[in-house]
């Protein structure tokens, strides 16, 4: 893991300097203003400093191929009656005389809220400490690691993935490293595993068709309306809305209503062959959003229809496919769903209904299982407000017990 700071007149200038030296796969861990020092500081412009993390090649995670995916036996969950009661500050983890209830819900959150401070401490840490302190920190570090492991399990990160993350940290943490290092290392590792969000990219030439696929009831139609609203209102793009969901009349009418509100064209597609004509009619548009019919992963006929519809645009226009999933769906069911759609096409991931669950582990589980990029998350029914581009830092903080 490489951690380094870069300065520039603007954040973009500092990030570009980091990319020139470390490459494009960097992760921004912290951004802050830096004031000039000295007598002439009033005549100099303030600078922006960014702290950058880069996972080295031999540490990088590569998703397993399907034939390589084997569930390994996992150790039984370690249970502590009040784990957060044992965490104190950056110099010691356990202080028995402090009030338990007060510290239980705040201390780990404070650590996560101040991860940028931990990173600064890590960069400036002395190389030697007292032997007695090293031994104590090593003991507390082990306990703290177990607490974070349990926290990930409580947030429904699979045991396999939690074990892998802890194993990677233990390989890099030395006995004399305080637990701040472990916390910041886990944070960095998990952010890097999520990778950069991959939202809809602009077309290079002509119109781009965007297919939204996924099971019934995950909120595809509402999600389309939210994204379309952002493109139309904020970005001033020309967007047309289509639906191929002829199984549910209500779905078509819902999207038609949104189209009327946004004052954009709307059409119903009854056969894949109609895509060619639609793309010709909307050749001067930026995007055509296509709502597809939801189906069970066990319905082979509907899966074949979805496959035919998506590939009907091949050679006619640029396209992207987004698989819409609910964050409330069980992990084992999500596995079956993503496997089913993986047989149809490559896709990016959208997770909906984050407001209906307190556990976000499935976002990490499915990211690691599929290797697909996460793009957007939604957290309510309000159009167009309850949607945002996926934020890996915010999500990892939540997975480690912090509050957003």
From TrEMBL:
Keywords: Bacterial flagellum biogenesis, Bacterial flagellum protein export, Cell membrane, Cell projection, Cilium, Flagellum, GTP-binding, Membrane, Nucleotide-binding, Protein transport, Transport. Residues 207-401 form the SRP54-type proteins GTP-binding domain. Its main location: membrane. It is a peripheral membrane protein. Coiled coil: none annotated. It comes from the Bacteria. InterPro entries: AAA+_ATPase (IPR003593), FlhF (IPR020006), FlhF__GTPase_dom (IPR047040), P-loop_NTPase (IPR027417), SRP54_GTPase_dom (IPR000897). It is found in: Cell membrane. Transmembrane segments: none annotated. Residues 206-355 form the AAA+ ATPase domain. Pfam families: SRP54 (PF00448). NCBIfam families: FlhF. Belongs to the GTP-binding SRP family. Necessary for flagellar biosynthesis. May be involved in translocation of the flagellum. This is Flagellar biosynthesis protein FlhF. It comes from Kineothrix sedimenti.
């Amino acid at each position: 893991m490489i951690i380094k700071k870069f300065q520039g007149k603007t954040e973009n200038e500092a990030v570009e300097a980091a990319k020139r030296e470390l490459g494009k796969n960097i992760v921004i861990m912290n951004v802050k203003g830096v004031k000039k020092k000295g007598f002439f500081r009033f005549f100099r412009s303030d600078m922006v400093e960014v702290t950058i993390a880069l996972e080295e090649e031999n540490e990088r995670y590569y998703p397993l191929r399907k034939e390589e995916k084997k569930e390994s036996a996992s150790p039984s969950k370690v249970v502590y009656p009040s784990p957060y009661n044992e965490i104190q500050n950056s110099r010691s983890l356990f202080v028995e005389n402090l009030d338990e209830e007060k510290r239980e819900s705040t201390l780990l959150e404070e650590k996560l809220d101040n991860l940028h401070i931990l990173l600064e401490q890590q960069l400036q840490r002395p190389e030697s400490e007292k032997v007695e302190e090293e031994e104590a920190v090593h003991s507390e570090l082990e306990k703290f690691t177990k607490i974070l492991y349990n926290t990930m399990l409580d947030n429904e990160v699979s045991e396999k993935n939690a074990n892998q993350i802890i194993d990677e940290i233990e390989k890099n943490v030395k006995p004399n490293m305080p637990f701040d290092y472990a916390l910041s290392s886990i944070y960095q590792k998990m952010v890097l595993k999520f990778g950069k969000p991959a939202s809809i990219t602009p077309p290079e030439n002509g119109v781009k068709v965007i297919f939204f696929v996924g099971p019934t009831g995950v909120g595809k139609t509402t999600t389309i309306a939210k994204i379309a609203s952002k493109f139309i209102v904020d970005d001033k793009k020309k967007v047309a809305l289509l639906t191929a969901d002829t199984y549910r009349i209500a779905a078509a009418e819902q999207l038609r209503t949104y189209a009327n509100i946004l004052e954009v064209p709307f059409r119903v597609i009854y056969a894949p062959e109609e895509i060619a004509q639609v793309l010709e009619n909307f050749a001067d548009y930026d995007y055509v959003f296509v709502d597809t019919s939801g189906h069970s992963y066990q319905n082979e006929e509907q899966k074949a229809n979805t496959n035919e519809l998506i590939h009907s645009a091949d050679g006619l226009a640029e396209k992207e496919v987004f698989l819409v999933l609910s964050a409330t769906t069980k992990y084992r069911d999500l596995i079956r769903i993503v496997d089913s759609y993986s047989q149809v096409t490559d896709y990016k991931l959208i997770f909906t209904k984050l407001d209906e669950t307190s556990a976000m582990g499935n976002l990490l589980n499915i990211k690691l299982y599929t290797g697909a990029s996460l793009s957007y998350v939604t957290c309510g029914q309000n159009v167009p407000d309850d949607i945002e581009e996926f934020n890996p830092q915010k999500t990892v903080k939540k997975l480690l017990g912090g509050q957003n």
